[in-house]
Write a structure and sequence with these properties.
homotrimer; 10-stranded parallel sheet; 4 helices
Chain lengths: 343, 343, 343
């Protein structure tokens, strides 16, 4: 990959930045963290705890917070700015546009669009994508290859569907939503009635509703509700290979890391953070702002703001304390045996 | 989603039901549980523990067991029937047929079917689906878009393949099987021989056999056997994102919840229930009717009827008891330290 | 499946083998392990611990190590050879070629290849596969159906892409790599900046680099790096449904079993073995040759050669010991209570 951006463009892009230092170089050609950066690279201080690494960094260009006190070395340029991480994101977006030139709007010659589907003229529909009856794709959407947009499903403006996304029937996707490759939206919920020792499928007539600004990771599955809707709230970001069961309601601005499993009818309030591979039993409520450690097993309601760990899940500090004591169990059993001998 | 069904149709659909109450309304327009139902909705008492919610339910139509003793309110209709859940399922199936009008049989113009493949004339083959040589698709099958049916693979009558299902070569799928979106059947088993520090692939010549009435969840993977077959028994229901290794044999009417991992050569007898994210080491036998809690780690054979939890897995009640005692470890260590001081 | 190979072919295939015994049969028609094999089957002693099963095996043909001392029964043929497992693999490869006759090279009539893509004339491109601009596919590659090869991505010679593999833009796949069905390579990393309570996407400009002789399991996801590359080292084998985060570096000849989750920026050295469903927190180093038990939760750096288990992970033998003692906790609490009573 060849990243490159002219210093002059950078200055234009960050009009509020205070510059110091000198640079013969007229462009930077890579981005790296402080430690790995070499001459020609741009680097940045995004987290105050790495402040000590700035003075040894070989980067040619450094994005630093306004209160950083050091001085640039020879052939080094400092950009002091309010939020270096944010500035970096802007630069990256610009580079991304260069690296992946935008595809012209329109429907690929190999795509198949049912007559009653409504596709905005500014949207892109990729090769081998199928768009079902009575569905709609909003303005500036980018639908890649091998996608399936089921009958009656709508995709809001500026959303992105990566290759092989499957949106089944009657689902609703908001604006600026990103669905990574292989995502399945609207698979049947896992619900069966038992009679005479056999499991009979319960039809799932509901839908999945994905609100604006959500991102869903690769190969993640979202089951449709039995009657109403499975819902992912505005601004929530779900990682890869996550399972979200039928009738689950997830609030706004949650973070759900890879391989988490959320059973049917869980209600998660806003701003919850869930570590990788954690699992939730069905029909629970998880309060606002709760944090769940990776691999935790949640089998009861979670209070707002709680921080839980382990299976069964305990308050984080108690779980940590018990972990430490467990390591001392061999010693405790030994000492107890000695006490007995003394008796 | 607009659900609606005329009361007259409902009466015809449930000829054994005993009606009581009056309703001006001529159709219901939604389905909801007892608590959430509003006027115009149909609701149901599927589980006796919710009996108390019937009298406060705002539903216009209620499906109730024969022995329910209360009376309908004004503008409320009771249908007393042997099994309300079953009745509901029938109603839902009927609604589902209305919501998703059946696609006409036939091969989509964009599909590609090898000459030697045999497709029943009542089957549907969706857009961009590939059907390989010497394969067969039975009567009334519904194969959606972007599916791959490998060479020599057969799909029994009335089976449903959702979008993007991949059936690799020489596999056998029974009748009335449902494969959700993104399912992979017949991927190579994870088996390597080591020599000189390198891992050499072991060819997997076997197949996957899926018996009748099985359902497999979205993005679940079933590896083919080394020589013989990986088998999923009749009536077993597997949830999303499950991993089933090579040579695994799963019995009849098992329930395997999302993200479970079953290593190679595990033999699971009939009617086993496995909670989400549980894992099984290779070459184990799991006895008939065993229950495995979510996130359990099974590393030894499991007796028929056993109920295990945790990793290492223990009988459920012992595991619960130990969990409680672990929470008391800080106290035990404190008290033990005090005893020592007394000495 | 009908496996069959003539005895004469077998003798030609294994010129170093020492034969003993007699067989009227002119070909074998199945392969099975020692215990399951019946007359007409070939079997093998791959692991010395099954030596005792040879004398009771009903197999017609047996592959045995040079030092095996028993004698063939009537109608049984022994092939003594240095490495029976290796011999078996060779035989299986030969059978595999028969079972799945190689597809003729060339681009399927339904595939879509951008003009600037370079496809070697000996490569096969399957039905409905999309090959993007400025990408390349090397000699003897077999790309199956419904694959996506993104712009600027290269695939080295003799690699195999099973159905529905998605290689996003600017990735690099080495030689003799096998990507099983549904693999996603190059999805966006899970990285967000927070500001004003919202999560803002961090662009991921890097790539994924898969070195030679790697195999990746079905529906596994590999996220692209933020700037540089996510890397899978030569000869490493990754199982199904694994999550590999952005900027992860995995060494050579590692084994990573199904459903493992590896968070961003983990560095794993060579020859690491990771059991199923284990999870790694971000930014860790895992030393050469370390072994991680299934379902372990790794939150700290791992020493080379360490063998860890549990969450929090402990040295394997300590973890085992603690598991045993935990089962004795009810007894310990009882005894402690009795001591107190005595006081």
């Amino acid at each position: 990959m060849s990243l490159s951006l002219k210093v002059a463009e950078l200055i234009k892009m960050l009009p509020d930045a205070q510059l110091s230092g000198h640079l013969v170089l007229k462009e930077f050609t890579g981005i790296a963290n402080l430690r790995d950066a070499r001459s020609g690279d741009l680097s940045f201080l995004g987290n105050a705890k790495y402040k000590g690494q700035v003075k040894d960094s070989q980067a040619s260009i450094l994005l630093l917070p306004n209160d950083y006190e050091g001085k640039p070395k020879d052939e080094q340029l400092f950009f002091r700015i309010k939020d270096p991480s944010w500035a970096l994101a802007k630069i990256c977006e610009s580079l991304e546009r260069k690296l992946s030139p935008s595809v012209a709007p329109g429907i690929h010659e190999t795509a198949f669009v049912e007559e009653s589907a409504q596709i905005d003229s500014s949207a892109t529909i990729g090769a081998f994508t199928y768009v079902g009856a009575n569905s709609s794709v909003g303005s500036n959407c980018k639908v890649s290859t091998h996608c399936h947009i089921g009958a009656g499903t709508s995709v809001g403006e500026s959303s992105i569907l990566h290759p092989g996304v499957k949106l089944l029937t009657r689902c609703v996707v908001g604006k600026r939503v990103i669905l990574n490759a292989g995502v399945v939206v609207g698979s049947d919920g896992y619900g069966f009635d038992q009679s005479e020792g056999m499991h009979h499928k319960i039809p799932h007539l509901g839908k999945v509703l994905i609100e604006d600004d959500v991102e869903i990771g690769a190969n993640t599955c979202l089951d449709r509700a039995r009657f109403e809707e499975t819902k992912i709230g505005k601004g929530t970001k779900v990682d890869n290979l996550v399972q979200i069961g039928h009738n689950v309601k997830i609030g706004k601005n949650c973070l759900i890391v890879a391989q988490v499993g959320i059973s049917g009818s869980v209600e998660m309030e806003d701003e919850v953070i869930v570590g990788g591979q954690a699992g939730f039993a069905g029909h629970l409520t998880v309060g606002k702002g709760a944090k769940i450690a990776g691999q935790a097993g949640i089998t009861k309601d979670v209070e707002p703001g709680a921080f839980l760990k382990g299976n069964p899940a305990l308050p984080f500090h108690l779980a940590q304390r018990i972990s430490v004591l467990q390591r001392k169990l061999p010693d405790l059993f030994n000492r107890f045996a000695q006490e007995k001998t003394k008796d």
